[in-house]
């Protein structure tokens, strides 16, 4: 589960970074500024949804490990 979390987060970050580069190539610096604006709630929501499974898997793996250690 921990490996899945790290792989998911790595691939998601690469995907997000490639998206930012694509916006830079198409719209320039001002496009990236609009994309990363703190008022662009749709972008932040999609980013959160993209990263959530990876963080969830890491948290779940930690809880499972704590449960296994406690039962020993």
Distance between the termini: 20 Å
> What about the largest sheet?
none
Q: What's the count of strands?
A: 0
Shape: elongated
Radius of gyration: 17 Å
Number of helices: 2
Provide the number of structural domains.
1
User: Stretches where pLDDT falls below 50 for ≥5 residues?
Assistant: none
Transmembrane segments: 7-25, 41-61
Keywords: Membrane, Transmembrane, Transmembrane helix
Descriptive report:
- Helix 1 (2-35) packs antiparallel against helix 2.
- The protein has helices spanning 2-35, 41-71.
- The protein has one domain (2-71).
- The model has no long low-confidence stretch (mean pLDDT 96).
- 90% of the residues lie in helices and 0% in strands.
- It is mostly helical.
Summarize the structure.
The chain has 72 residues and is mainly α. The mean pLDDT is 96. It has helices at 2-35, 41-71.
Question: What is the strand and helix layout of this fold?
Answer:
Layout: H1 2-35, H2 41-71
Helix pairs in contact: 1-2
Which terms would index this structure?
single chain; 72 residues; mainly alpha; 2 helices
